[in-house]
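Researcher: Here's the sequence for the chain we discussed earlier.
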Amino acid sequence: MSPASRPRVSLLMPNRNNGAVLDLVLDRLAVHTSYHDFELIVVDDGSTDVSLEILRRWRDSGRFSTFVLIEREHAGVVETLNAGLEVATGELVVQLDADASIETPGWLERMTDFFVSDERIGVVTAKIVYDRGTINACGISVVGPAGLHDRGTEVSEPVGRRTHHHRVFRPRESDCELCERLAEVDGGIGCCMMYRRSVALEVGGYDPGFAPVWFDDLDLTISMRRLGYKVFFMPDVRVIHRPGMRGGREERPTPRQRAVGVLKRFRFLLPSRGRVRVLQALNLDRPRPEHRERLAHHYAYWRDKWGFDMLNPDMRGVVERWGETEICWQTNPEMVEAGERIVEAFQAAGGTRAAEYRGAP
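Model: Thanks. This is the structure I predict for it:
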């Protein structure tokens, strides 16, 4: 596909108090984005650190041909994303995180070329790796017996009796064969996912029921599946999620945080699965109380909206309600085959193009 024929893309990045990592994230984005027609929209959600100073400097630096900075009072990620979506001018939108760096040259060409290769594609999401080397997500799994978990991870609680979605075993990137194949997935993750702006607006944008944050990205992609679109994971685009570099942490760690810190310090004494087991057994991996309250609300809101439990879905009920839609694509052989054909057609036509991207500076 020639540069002139590729659609305009809006990169949408919400930010709140990511001052410690923003320069790194924006520098990587500038270095690795060679796309001919894009805009960067950063919506600051009432930051109280040095974020605005950094963002204004980048806006005025000229390293991005179009850098739109929107400064808002703190309202949460969902409202922030919808504010950016409203002013975006691109046919396609890529949601990014302000603490996640793009590490692949030519990444936007790769995602766009696959996205426009078939009109049934509604979302393309990237490989997200934590800076410690473990898999964050290669797409999201939610419509299956194991319930919600980052694709590429393995749930660490008994299936059907899960309590928190973050209770999973996370392999190292080098040990995750699943994360090396272009494939259809249930949903996308907001660290880096591309979708069509018109379709996002058609489904109502990011649902404020998930305010202030969490599951809004997954909900958006499932909403697009409901309309008949497909979601794919693209391993060729690699993103490093760097939550450990963010600012705004508590000055004094809680007793639980201190215990977790001690366990991590002596992590070499236990294999990774053993550490997870110990953390779970002692409830040291539980979110903070305010986060537990928010999760309880979001889990319940998801049940009300979609009619099934995120963590412990009754698959019979899910199929009865959504079996004729792309939400249940995995239970429909024809839908599975359609997704496989999309992947095969793109790979057959675009292998040399991918090689050119790998050779990009």
